[in-house]
Design goal:
The protein is mainly alpha-helical. It contains six helices and three strands.
Length: 133
C-alpha cells in the first residue's frame, strides 16, 4: 500500500479543507461568510518575516484579516478575511506525529477560524470535538 501512496496535491488538500469546513456546525459556518480558505505549499517570505518564523515549516496555518470582534461599522471596505493552510508544513507535522492527516487539517482550520471569531483555545477545542475525521 505505501509503495504507491502519494502526498495529497494542493487541489486535494484544498478539497480536504473544504470537506472539513462543511462538517463544522452550521451556526459556525454562517459566521464565516466571506472568509476565503486557501492552501499553499509554504507561507510567503513576508508572512514569515512578519511573524518571526525561523523556517518555512514553522507555520501550519494563518488567519489574515480583521476578526469579527475587531470589526466596526466605520470600517472602509476591508480586504476579505483569509485562512491559509500550508500543505508542506502540515505534511511534515503529520509525518512526525501519531495523528491522522484529516485530524491535523481539521485542527489547523478550526484554530485559524477561531482567530476570525476571537475564540479562546477552549472554545476551539469544543468546536473541534464536534468534527469527525
Amino acid at each position: 500500500m505505501w509503495i504507491t501512496a502519494k502526498a495529497p496535491s494542493l487541489a486535494e488538500f484544498e478539497e480536504m479543507a473544504q470537506e472539513t469546513f462543511g462538517k463544522l456546525p452550521e451556526e459556525f459556518r454562517a459566521l464565516c461568510e466571506g472568509v476565503i480558505i486557501r492552501v499553499d505549499d509554504f507561507p510567503t517570505d513576508e508572512v514569515m518575516e512578519e511573524l518571526g518564523a525561523q523556517t518555512e515549516f514553522d507555520l501550519l496555518g494563518l488567519f489574515q484579516g480583521i476578526g469579527l470582534p475587531q470589526r466596526s461599522s466605520q470600517d472602509i471596505a476591508p480586504m476579505p478575511n483569509m485562512i491559509w493552510l500550508y500543505r508542506r508544513p502540515i505534511l511534515d507535522y503529520w509525518s512526525e506525529n501519531d495523528e491522522t492527516l484529516g485530524h491535523i487539517v481539521s485542527h489547523v482550520l478550526i484554530h485559524e477560524i477561531g482567530h476570525h471569531f476571537g475564540l479562546s483555545d477552549d472554545d476551539m477545542e469544543a468546536i473541534e470535538a464536534q468534527v469527525a475525521d
